[in-house]
Amino acid sequence: MTDSEIIYLDNNATTPLDPAVIEEMLPFLRECYGNPSSGYAFAAKAREAVDLARERLAALLGCEPPEIVFTRCGTESNNAVINSVLQFEPHGKHIVTSAVEHSAVLHPCQDLIKRGCDVTFLGVDQDGRVDLGELEAAIRPETALVSMMWANNETGVLFPVEKIAELCRDKGVLFHTDAVQAVGKIPIGVRDTAINFLSLSAHKFHGPKGVGALYVRRGTRFHPLIAGGGQEDGRRGGTENVASIVGLGKAAERALEYLTEGKTHIRSMRDRFEKAILERVSGASVNGARAARVPNTSSFSFEGIESPAALLLLDRHRICCSAGSACRTGSQEASHVLRAMDSIGDRARRSLRFSFSRFNTDAQIDRAIEIVPKVIAKLREMTTPAQASAVSAAVTAQ
Questions:
Q1: Over the stretch 125-155, which tens digit does the pLDDT of each residue have?
Q2: Coil, strand, or helix at residue 91?
Q3: Minimal CB count within 10 Å: which of 44, 72, 115, 246?
Q4: What is the DSSP string of 191-248?
Q5: Which CATH number, 3.30.2280.10, 3.30.70.360, 3.40.1010.20, 3.40.640.10, labels domain 19-259?
Q6: 212-222: buried (b, 16+ CB within 10 Å) or exposed (e) per residue?
Q7: Superfamily of domain 7-16+263-397
Q8: How far is the CA of 137 from the CAs of 2, 96, 133, 140, 262, in angstroms?
Q9: How far apart are CA 323 and CA 121, in angstroms?
Q10: CA atoms within 13 A on the CB side of 384
Q11: Is the dihedral of CA 33, 37, 40, 46 positive or negative?
Q12: Cα 128 to Cα 69, 136, 274, 355, distances in angstroms
């Protein structure tokens, strides 16, 4: 590979479109542009395509097609669940979630507090794990919902959502999981769990941006966030984004093929990268290393650096990674996830996230292994605060 080639290691922010997904979408951008709600044969092609996408996604999740509701994104799905539960539980003014959730859950919950609801934010240990005993103790008679992510977007740490769902079922409380970072990366079978709601987003597993879905377990009451023309069986108003839904379905089919074949290429790349960086860079550690994690995510903390400065230098070497959630890019606030894992330290300000996909190559990993230690060493040479601050300021100005 050449020095000018981009090495994209930020696949938790978004993923490249699978070429097969693009090919599947194109007819619905060019010829098959009918409204799936219309009654003539031309529009029926669009309806059939939406139905097929629903079947493909249901196969990936291990559920029934009617349990799938297409949305605009994972954020919409999360908001829909939180708002729906409170519609049906007027006396249940309490929600339990974790302190390390994505902002698509944290911000709606914070808004609920302003509206008079009570929200419990459970902490995590130094490896990002939630304590099931603390969760059980937090559930009260007035608890309407427990919402816990399946995989953390910054560290890749997995929560035991199957056990959490069972606990909630035994307590008579609805359970929602934000699975945006889990779908397509690990096997999921919601049929064999007590999960009531599950959110996902297509662009996290090589589908298009601007389309997501919500799993609503059969028999679980649900009030639509967006009312309209009765689309999605009355659960999400608005004309369907057919081409993107088709792309989501194809991406789900491709993800299932990858998982079914038991390929370990992504995990192998991640593990090789972690091993090499830990060997070559003193003062480096993997955040959440002792916890179960999705196979594609490495969150590193490096002594003696500042994340913004590291990102700038890595970008100059054409390496794309992040310091946390892509939704917080430009913010100088340290990662709330890493602060929750290390409340008295500065790990949150000296961490980098590398996330891999099946489209990364061994040559790209070799190049990253060569460049990252050099960048960390260069930053450590900047011993004065003024030098380090100057680099960080340059990042902010970009």
A1: 999 999 999 999 999 999 999 999 999 999 9
A2: coil
A3: 115
A4: GGS---EEEEEGGGGTS-TT-EEEEE-TT-----SS-SS-HHHHTS-S---HHHHHHH
A5: 3.40.640.10
A6: bbbbbbeebeb
A7: Aspartate Aminotransferase, domain 1 (3.90.1150.10)
A8: 55, 11, 6, 8, 38
A9: 23
A10: 3
A11: positive
A12: 30, 18, 18, 17
Instruction: Please determine, for residue 110, whether its predicted confidence score (pLDDT) is greater than 80.
Output: yes
Q: Can you read off the two tokens belonging to residue 306?
A: 């500042």
Cα–Cα distance measured from residue 42 to residue 155, given in angstroms and rounded to the nearest whole number:
46
CA-based diameter of the chain, in Å?
Answer: 71
Tell whether the torsion through CA atoms of 295, 259, 23 and 269 is positive or negative: positive
Question: Which is catalytic among the residues 109, 320, 321, 327?
Answer: 327
Q: How many helices (H) and strands (E) does the chain have?
A: 14, 12
Domain ranges of the chain: 7-16+263-397, 19-259
**Contacts of residue 392, Cβ cutoff 8 Å, sequence gap at least 6:** 306, 308, 309
Q: What is the pLDDT of residues 32-78, one digit of tens each?
A: 999 999 989 999 999 999 999 999 999 999 999 999 999 999 999 99
Q: Terminus-to-terminus CA distance in the chain, angstroms?
A: 27
327 catalytic? Reply is yes
- With 0.90 as the threshold, say if the pTM is over it: yes
